[in-house]
Design goal:
The structure holds 2 protein chains of 2 kinds.
Chain A (H helix, E strand, L loop, with lengths): L2 E3 L10 H5 L5 E3 L4 E3 L10 H4 L5 E3 L9 H12 L13 H7 L3
Antiparallel strand pairs in A: 1-4, 2-3
Chain B lengths: L8 E6 L9 E7 L2 E7 L17 H4 L10 E3 L8 E3 L2 H19 L4 E5 L14 H7 L3 E3 L5 H10 L16 E5 L3 H4 L4 H9 L3 E5 L5 H5 L2 E3 L6 H14 L5 H7 E2 L1 H9 L3 H8 L3 H13 L3 E5 L9 H15 L8 E3 L10 H5 L10 E3 L3 H6 L10 E5 L3 H4 L3 H8 L5 E6 L11 E4 L8 E3 L6 E5 L12 H11 L11 H8 L12 H7 L1 E3 L23 E2 L51 E4 L15 H7 L3 E4 L1 H4 L9 E5 L4 E8 L7 E4 L35 E6 L1
Parallel strand pairs in B: 6-15, 7-14, 8-9, 8-12, 9-10, 11-21, 12-13, 15-16, 16-17, 22-26, 23-25
Antiparallel strand pairs in B: 1-2, 2-3, 4-5, 4-17, 18-19, 19-20, 22-27, 23-26, 24-25, 24-27
Helix pairs in contact in B: 4-13, 8-10, 8-11, 8-12, 8-13, 11-12
Classes of the chains: A alpha+beta, B alpha/beta.
């Protein structure tokens, strides 16, 4: 069991999720964040925090989104932990509008 | 919150569960229906998030299996065949059966059985105490959890709240000792992370490489039940290397010379043999702990779950007085701050109503009490179960089931669902859930008072426990004023609202704000024992306990306020290492070579929510974690189904082969409903009913088993 960050995060990286996470399970790179499944404790606090609805509990993922489980697990090993909120990426609001959110 | 319409009514509440976090709830209600329960974003602990266990809490209220009406048994005991009856018929049946039992056997033939299925002031641990004390029933000693730690804590530092979990944020060295905080004290973890970000070292002492251990800077694997030896070994190093705070010890502790003599018996080499921890690690831990000020120890309940568990808690609780850690904010130890709250237990429990000479039966010995293995005169002829599920949660489950099948046992059970215990009842009574009742929540993990206000009407004919006992009292003809008080009157009388810690806190203010902090100082400044002020008879931290002279005792809150008929067995004034009975058997001395520990599950709260399909998906089925060296010779592979067994019983589980446990150690979780498991049994079919050396707590971690592939 874990939660995963899906494609909506890419190019936005609002990181409100990070502030809501009690266990610091988010990892970050230049364009988005990922969740470490070994650390996530399934509390779902991050889900409503995300302005672009990028985060899902593993078993709520649609069939065509299942690959994000593996991507999050692998990327979490590669990128550093993020503990505090960052400014959103330039263009985040535009992407959010593009996503219709 | 934003997802709901402006028609949404938001009502403040608080989590009912037996957990140190006691979260502040916001109930979201639309057209009289509870649509969502969220965490209060303004609460310093809750921080807007609940936990995996509570994720479907709103839906839980509408679970179609809920018990909504009184029922009577219409099939054989345990068949689960029940028929709806009225409250009047249920109460009349209880009165009639109890009247007959009392006439023939006396009132002590009736025994209540309760624990912390609900953690409210009105509806929780002590909800039925006044009623059963008035009735003159056997006093039930409720020692499922924490009782050993409570006795140990009070013997050492007295009924003080100790350190505030929020103060961990300013600690520089944190030892999490016997607790998987990420599973069971989640809302305390952000303070640990804050300390870590500021440079603190996080050490986890746990036999299992838990989620929490994986997040620590240092995980020390300890053999279960040997915590006292480690604490005494640390003292050995701290004293022999002169790392202790002489001034603090001299001014604010009692019995240093005796403690020093005891610690001398535990050189690191001996401690290493006992605990399985390398000598170098014992030395490093002791030196770092004593050498880093603002050091904190977060004690978990796991420490008490072995035969020497009480003394282990005493020994650990001595450490911050030895090093003077109490001098600093973020220094000291956290066990259970519940003692800071000004409860009026005498009002809640009415121990003055207990007839002199009334006997005490420990709840963990329920099976023996019901089957005759424990000689009793009079025998138990009626059992009244509420807020508890002994078939799943008490040790020795097999014997309990045998006892509950007795045709002559009149059993009443107040419940939310027909659990593995409730199915043996003769009369079932429907209880409310948290959104349907008023209460002030008791908390044992932080320093806030919470008022839980009802957000929706109870379904069917469910009643809160407080109302259940009012009805029973009237049915039994009790005319005391106590039974005429409404919930608000009771809340006013359950607390000393004039106590200094309650400054500014009123029921009216709680109605508006939902929660308020006790006036005990701020987390980053608070030093409750910087200059002693321990609540022991001497006012000092008692390395040599003056209360030991009275022998072993259970703190009265765990036994309906009753002071008499304590176990009274001899207690060493100075904490010692008391070896486990089963775990420490030498290789080959037991037919059962593996030690099994059974901590709490991730997605259930004990057995609660374990009947919710969504939570079952999150938790997964009953598993055991087994080391490859134990799995290999038994042909057990990842995912194999296995049978775990000993002379007491057996259960089946799916194997996870992992080095998260050591060779010779397996882990499983308590809380899966036996009836929903493959074998119809769960881990407590294998556990023993021995007690920990203090407070009559259980010894769930001292459990030898074997395992085979099925």
């Amino acid at each position: 069991m874990t939660h995963v960050v899906t494609d909506n995060c890419r190019g936005c990286r609002y990181t409100d999720c990070v502030a809501s996470c009690p266990v610091a399970c988010f990892h970050v790179n230049e364009v988005r964040v990922y969740i470490d499944p070994a650390v996530c404790i399934d509390c779902s606090a991050c889900i409503p925090a995300c302005p672009v609805h990028a985060i899902f509990e593993e078993f709520d993922l649609a069939d065509d989104q299942q690959h994000w489980i593996r991507i999050n697990a692998e990327a979490a090993q590669r990128y550093p932990v993020i503990r505090t909120r960052l400014a959103p990426l330039d263009g985040a609001d535009a992407r959010r509008q593009q996503l219709g959110l | 919150m934003s997802t709901h319409s402006s028609e949404t009514l938001v009502v403040r509440g608080a989590c009912p569960q037996d957990c140190p976090d006691t979260c502040a709830f916001l109930y979201h209600v639309e057209d009289g229906r509870l649509v969502e329960v969220t965490g209060d974003p303004d609460h310093p602990m809750t921080r807007g998030g609940l936990c995996v266990k509570l994720k479907n809490f709103a839906e839980h209220h509408y679970n179609p299996d809920r018990l909504l009406y009184p029922m009577k048994r219409v099939g054989p005991k345990g068949s689960g065949m029940f028929e709806r009856i009225s409250w009047d018929e249920a109460l009349a049946t209880i009165k009639s059966r109890w009247t007959d039992i009392i006439a023939e056997y006396g009132t002590q033939a009736i025994m209540p059985h309760a624990y912390l299925g609900h953690q409210g002031t009105l509806n929780g641990l002590t909800a039925g105490d006044a009623f059963f004390n008035r009735l003159g029933s056997t006093v039930a000693e409720k020692t499922y959890c924490e009782s050993g730690s409570s006795t140990a804590w009070i013997m050492t530092v007295g009924p003080t709240g100790g350190m505030d979990v929020e103060s961990l944020a300013v600690s520089k060295y944190i030892i999490v000792w016997g607790m998987n905080m990420l599973n069971t004290n989640l809302h305390g973890w952000p303070f640990v992370l804050k300390a870590k970000a500021a440079g603190a070292k996080i050490v986890v002492i746990d036999p299992v490489r838990t989620r929490t251990a994986k997040q620590a800077d240092w995980h020390i694997r300890i053999r279960p039940g040997t915590d006292a030896a480690l604490a005494l070994g640390m003292m050995n190093v701290i004293i022999s290397e002169d790392l202790y705070d002489h001034d603090y010890v001299e001014k604010y502790t009692l019995g240093f010379d005796q403690l020093k003599a005891r610690a001398e018996e535990f050189p690191p080499e001996r401690v290493s043999e006992i605990t399985g921890i390398p000598v170098v690690d014992i030395l490093t831990l002791a030196r770092e702990y004593a050498g880093t000020q603002r050091s904190a120890i977060r004690q978990g309940v796991a420490v008490e779950r072995s035969p020497g568990g009480g003394d282990a808690v005493r020994a650990i609780t001595c450490l911050p007085a030895l090093t003077g850690a109490w001098r600093y904010p973020g220094g000291g130890t956290i066990e259970m701050p519940i003692w800071e709250f000004p409860f009026k237990f005498d009002f809640m429990c009415r121990p003055d109503w207990i007839p002199p000479g009334t006997r005490v039966i420990n709840e963990l010995e329920l099976g023996a009490a019901l089957t005759g293995a424990m000689p009793l005169d009079p025998p138990i002829k009626s059992l009244f179960v509420y807020n508890s599920n002994p078939v799943s949660q008490a040790p020795g489950a097999g014997t309990i089931v045998e006892g509950l099948q007795r045709e002559d046992l009149f059993m009443v059970c107040s419940e939310l669902f027909i659990t593995d215990t409730a199915k043996y009842a003769d009369i079932l009574l429907p209880a409310t859930m948290q959104a349907e009742q008023l209460d002030i929540m008791v908390t044992w993990g932080h320093l806030y008072m919470h008022l839980n206000q009802p957000a929706i009407a109870p379904p069917g004919e469910c009643v809160p426990n407080v109302e259940l006992f009012r009805r029973l009292a009237k049915t039994m003809g009790f005319t005391d004023e106590h039974w005429d008080l409404d919930d608000w009157d009771m809340l006013r009388r359950c607390y000393d609202w004039d106590a200094p810690v309650m400054k500014g806190i009123t029921l009216e203010a709680l109605k508006e704000k939902g929660w308020m902090r006790l006036d005990v100082g701020l987390p980053d400044e608070r030093t409750p024992h910087a200059t002693g002020d321990f609540r022991t008879p001497s006012g000092k931290c008692e390395f040599a306990s003056s209360l030991a002279a009275g022998g072993n005792f259970v703190v009265p809150v765990w036994r309906s306020g009753y002071e008499a008929m304590q176990p009274g067995t001899s207690v060493d004034p100075v904490p010692n290492y008391i070896p486990s009975v089963e775990t420490m058997l030498p290789d080959g001395a037991s037919a059962f070579p593996i030690n099994l520990v059974s901590p709490k599950p991730h997605a259930f709260l004990n057995t609660q929510y374990a009947n919710e399909p969504t939570q079952q998906r999150r938790q997964g089925e009953q598993i055991i974690v087994i080391h490859p060296m134990d799995a290999g010779p038994r042909s057990i592979e990842q995912g194999s189904y296995v049978r775990v067994f000993n002379e007491r019983g057996a259960f089946e589980a799916r194997a996870e082969v992992s080095e998260d446990v050591s060779p010779g150690l397996m882990m499983t979780n308590v809380g899966h409903w036996p009836g929903l498991n493959r074998s119809g049994t769960a881990v407590n079919s294998t556990t023993s009913t021995r007690h920990c050396n203090l407070g009559q707590a259980g010894t769930y971690s001292d459990n030898r088993v074997d395992v085979q592939r099925v």
